[in-house]
Amino acid sequence: MNQPLFLQPVFQERIWGGTALKDQFNYDIPSDITGECWAISGHPNGQSTVINGEFTGKTIGELWNDHRELFGQHPSPVFPLLTKILDANADLSVQVHPNDDYAKEHENGELGKTECWYIIDCDEDAEMIFGHTAQTKEEFVSMIEKGEWNDLLRRIPVKPGDFFYVPSGTIHALCKGTLVLETQQSSDTTYRVYDYDRRDAEGNTRELHIDKSIEVTTIPHKTEAVEPVVEKREGVESTKFVEAEYFTVYKWKVDGHSSFVQDQPFQLASVLDGSGVLKVHGEEYSLTKGDHFILPADIETFEIEGQVELIVSHV
User: Fold this and answer.
1) Deepest in the core among 95, 157, 162, 190, taking most CB within 10 A?
2) pLDDT mean over 145-171
3) H or E stretch at 254
4) What is the mean predicted confidence (pLDDT) over 147-167?
5) SS (H, E, C) 184-223
6) Mean of the per-residue pLDDT values for the chain?
7) Domain boundaries, the chain
8) pLDDT given at position 201
């Protein structure tokens, strides 16, 4: 085959969504409350579909099950990663995700959810909720019961280009006015701790998952430091943001022409800005902002030309 797999994303409407996915990436979104672009996904709740080559029309899940050779025979029972772009047009609920063991037991064998965020764009005074102040489980429970949210939740400012690693067990929430690329385990399990007493169009508050949240939250909060490693070589500045248990994530800033060797079973790539050309075995594929693709195992070398920024990940 020796071809990249370009993908059609799936869009999810959310109470906190907006129109930034259309405004910034020119996507054809379903409504003005579109919160999530599931860009590279094999999760049953929203599967990306191949739009080029011999596997056109196939979902990632189908390829994972039927053509594992594309992924270097990786042993995971499910496609392990999920790339999203999130438009937080309003505050997201304060939430926490379980680890693999807890999710397997309590969520029908679902994976846990460790994730990370690259801030694509945000309002000038944007912030996010990241962690909490409680030192013990008793204190955590007490502050939740008393509704002491301003004292419990840690708020930090964010700016474009920031990167955050969010392991399972971390209390967190994106806040209004942020556009984020998220790399995560392939999981759709979220426990809501607090939702600002918001009501939907029918006047209902959203379900909270207080008991499960208390069980899975890391107490006291631990911040995993992100120490980017920058490597410059011909035509590209590569920034490795994180190398963790479930994924490694880079930003590639190509200016001109650069050659790459694929030393992973497969890689996921999302074009955040600019345009260029991907060259694989003599074939050329145009790259434009908002494109997402997988580089399968049988692509050993490739080239990228142009002025283009990508977020790239692998297991």
Assistant:
1) 95
2) 98
3) strand 248-261
4) 98
5) EECCCCCEEEECCCCECCCCCECCCCHHHHHHHCCCCCCC
6) 97
7) 5-216, 229-314
8) 79
- What is d(CA 26, CA 41) in angstroms, rounded to the nearest whole number? 20
Q: What is the DSSP letter of 91?
A: P
**In this structure, are residues 274 and 286 in contact, taking their beta carbons and an 8 Å threshold?**
no
Half-sphere exposure of 20 (CA within 13 A, CB side): 23
- Output the pTM of the full model: 0.97
Which residues is 40 bridged to in the sheet?
83
Domain 5-216: which CATH number of 2.60.120.10, 2.60.40.3410, 3.40.710.10, 3.40.1190.20: 2.60.120.10
Q: For residues 156 and 296, what is the distance between their CA atoms, to the nearest angstrom?
A: 38
Measure the CA–CA gap between 164 and 138, rounded to whole angstroms: 28
Structure tokens at 301: 């070398």
pLDDT, tens digit (0-9, with 9 covering 90-100), for 82-137: 999 999 999 999 999 999 999 999 999 999 999 999 999 999 999 999 999 999 99
Evaluate whether 184 touches 242 at the Cβ level (below 8 Å): no
The answer to whether residue 154 is catalytic is no
Tokens of 75: 């042993």
Q: Are 189 and 115 in contact (CB under 8 A)?
A: no
What CATH number is given for 229-314 in this structure? 2.60.120.10
The residue from 155, 192, 206, 233 that is catalytic is 192
Provide the residue count of the chain: 315
CB 180 within 8 A of CB 159: no
Average pLDDT score over residue span 205-219: 96
Asked whether the predicted pLDDT for residue 77 surpasses 80, the reply is yes
Best CA proximity match to 265, nearest among 296, 244, 236, 240: 296
- In sequence order, the 6+-apart residues with CB closer than 8 A to the CB of 186 are 41, 42, 43, 78, 79, 80, 81, 82, 111
The two three-digit tokens of residue 84, written as one number: 């999203």
Asked if residue 91 lies in contact with residue 183, where contact means CB atoms within 8 angstroms, the answer is no
pLDDT at residue number 54: 96
